[in-house]
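Teaching note: in complex prediction, the entire set of molecules is handled at once rather than each chain in isolation. The prompt given to students was simply: 'Predict the structure of this complex.' The entities are:
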Amino acid sequence: MTVKIEVVAGGIPHTKIMVAGLLASLVCLYLSYLNVVTKTEMFSFFGGLAVVAALLWGSHTIKVLCSYGIGTGVPSAGMIAFGSGVMGMLLATKFGIAAPIVALVLAAIIGLIIGYLSNDVLNMKIPTMVKSLTELAIVGAFTLMGFAVLMTGSFTFANLMSGSVTFLGQVMPSFQVSFIGGSLIATAFMLGAIAIQHPFNACLGPGWTQDRMLILTAECGFLSMIVAAFMSFALITSGSALISLIVALVGWGYTYSEYMKLGKRDAAAWLDSKPIPDVEEH
Amino acid sequence: MTAVAAKPAAGGAMNPTAMAIGLVLMLVIIGACWKIAPGLGLMALIGMIIGGVLIGFGTHFVPVGGAPAAMGQAPGIATGVPMLAAGAGLAGLFGGAWAAEQGLVVAFVTGAVGGGLMMAITCMMVSFIYVFGMGIPAASGKVKVDPITGDTQPEFKSQGTEGHGLPFTSFVGGVIGGLLAGGGGTLIYLMLLDLYKATLPGMMNATESQIMPIAISAAGIFAVGMFLVNAVLTAYNITGTIEGPHDPKFKRWPRAVVASAVASALCGFVAILIVVM
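The expected output is the structure of the full assembly:
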């Protein structure tokens, strides 16, 4: 006796967002392969763009799932997305150039089984549960892979496991200075999990509008990208990390100002108050 | 017309067919693991399934109140399962990880105590805030008499609420839940760490001390991922809120145990495949 609380009225249909998000993040992940072709690390920022594309798709999936009232709060959807996504992503990195495609397939299988468990074994009986959890697992895997590309410039297992340190002018291999060995993956996990669940959690309610939520998602994605770009200074050349940082800052600034505009559009009224009122001089 | 006013739809009914399919799926995964990685891999998988079941079962004891509890309209800790799991369960996991070098039993117990301690502190601070900050007494809405202390409940319950505050049984349930979940999370971590320590050196042509950062980090992130998957599955089972072991919803635990076992087998198998493929 599930009651659908809210239908997606107007706006872009979910299928369109799903296909666009999937294709955009796949293309961005593969564009980062230009790093290998051109033997630089300049194209690492495509990983961050893949993160933003995947998050846009994921936050709309959370909206579709959570409008049924799953009773556990929105953050749980973000957590299960990344919990199941990290499995598929790490195994997929072992497949070299095919990694993004393998991550897509593996995460879909894991998400499908977890969706079946939730819907039938746990008797949730929500029509879109299986589909949504499958999508969320793929989004989790793509987001983590995007962060990996952003921080290390690569999505292959060997490059995520080992890095190099320069000590007294000599370059030495080190397992500690790497995406996994340095536990940067744990930070990426939480950066993504918070960015995916926050937009719908913040925008839900009678005044929900699709464009405002999606622009907030993009803003959260770029904000996470700024932090990840700072971390990438440790693993890739400073110039390449600087490019990622600039892309992230520009993207964040633009989406933030757009979000403020949409927030003012949807608000009943607003007052531009100042944090500290001016004291009148007498 | 929003998700705010939504009511959970899941009932207490079991679905035997789906549970049987789930168990068969788990056996298939265990069989596949036995075929690909007998010995250490299979041991690790079984350990991870036990750990996952402990997390799934333990989360049922934790008094999760959600948003109604924050408004003093339902008993329990005023947040959702993922937050409590991340706070209490991962505290246990970190505690157990520190003791990982001292053997399985010591580390497992340390993890359990870490989780239980974190839950005890959380429950105490929550009670402080409820009683002295919000000015509400502890009263259960689901039972007439507290099963442990024998205190009557309805006199203290405000009209129009499902109870409020943190009754004594919920406190005890929270600590038991923390013990089980912290121990389960630690078990998953230890199993993966042992497996990675044994297999990664050969795979990457390095000594054990060199690959330790990778083994610890990979085992840690997988343990966190599996912990969250199991905790959220349990949250779906109890549809968000539960008062503790005396709540009628507690009787739904067989469903969550099956779901956690299958999900842990699946995730654990993927984590094992990384080193044996």
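Point out the following to students. Strands of chain A lie at 163-167, 170-174. Residues 92 and 99 of chain A are 5 Å apart (CA to CA).
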